């Protein structure tokens, strides 16, 4: 597999879950962020970005008034830049593995985010991320980048993909002695 591994699949198929599970044994060797839903009473209200260091910010919400919108969600580009882009830049400088979850419509409103994604891909470091399934000119260019291995994720292949991604993460970090076994 190449230096950059991006998972693509429909909503709810488990892309973020696989990324988080694949990072299970890494401590301080990976940096970046993942996206999680904000739900109230079982109803999705928005999305939050969470860095691997634990900082979080609201990325998009039904109550955010913004010129940048995806469906019913207003997108807070400033929060993405302040928390998400900062985490990516720090990971590129300090970590063996850069995590980007996700490269999607909401995140692509930010020029700084796009720049950071390209910087991560071209850094020579391992990048594990998720990318939108639907066509988008900029995202499609990333999918075709020569450093990228694009892995389609479905409910049927989730277990196999998890195993593949975990092995990919371990193969690079173990060769450098960077994987620490969970003591729990």
Q: If you had to describe this structure to a student in words, what would you say it looks like?
A:
There is one protein chain. With 184 residues, the chain is of the alpha/beta class. It has one domain (4-174): Rossmann fold, CATH 3.40.50.300. It is 34% helix and 29% strand. It has five helices and nine strands; from the N terminus they run E-H-E-E-E-E-E-H-E-H-E-H-E-H. It has helices at residues 15-22, 77-94, 111-121, 137-144, 158-175; strands at residues 4-8, 30-40, 43-51, 56-61, 69-70, 73-75, 97-103, 126-131, 148-152. A nine-stranded mixed beta sheet has the order 5-6-4-3-2-7-8-1-9, with helices on both faces. A hairpin with a 4-residue loop joins strand 3 (43-51) and strand 4. The radius of gyration is 16 Å and the shape is globular. Mean pLDDT is 91; it is low at 174-184.
- Residue windows where pLDDT falls under 50 for at least 5 positions: 174-184
What does the largest sheet look like?
Answer: 9 strands, mixed
Assembly form of the protein: single chain
CATH class reads Alpha Beta
Numbering strands along the chain, what is their spatial order in the largest sheet?
A: 5-6-4-3-2-7-8-1-9
Return the domain count: 1
Distance between the termini: 30 Å
Classified in CATH, the superfamily is P-loop containing nucleotide triphosphate hydrolases
| Mass-distribution shape | globular
Helices and strands, in N-to-C order?
EHEEEEEHEHEHEH
Helix content: 25-40%
Percent of sequence in beta strands: 25-35%
Mean of all residue-level pLDDT scores: 91
CATH architecture: 3-Layer(aba) Sandwich
The SS-based structural class is alpha/beta
Q: What is the radius of gyration computed over CA atoms, rounded to a whole number of angstroms? A: 16 Å
């Amino acid at each position: 597999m190449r230096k950059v591994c991006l998972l693509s699949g429909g909503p709810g198929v488990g892309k973020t879950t696989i990324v988080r599970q694949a990072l299970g044994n890494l401590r301080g060797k990976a940096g970046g962020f993942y996206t999680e839903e904000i739900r109230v009473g079982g109803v999705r209200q928005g999305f939050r970005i969470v860095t691997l260091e634990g900082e979080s910010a609201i990325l998009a919400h039904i109550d955010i008034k913004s010129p940048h919108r995806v469906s019913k969600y207003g997108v807070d580009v400033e929060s993405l830049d302040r928390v998400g882009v900062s985490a990516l830049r720090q990971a590129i400088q300090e970590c063996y593995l850069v995590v980007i979850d996700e490269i999607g419509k909401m995140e692509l409103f930010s020029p700084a985010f796009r720049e950071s994604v390209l910087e991560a891909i071209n850094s020579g470091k391992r990048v594990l991320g998720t990318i939108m399934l639907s066509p988008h000119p900029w995202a499609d260019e990333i999918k075709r980048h020569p450093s990228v291995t694009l892995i389609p994720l479905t409910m049927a292949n989730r277990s196999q993909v998890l195993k593949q991604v975990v092995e990919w993460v371990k193969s690079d970090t173990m060769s450098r002695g960077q994987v620490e076994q969970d003591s729990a």
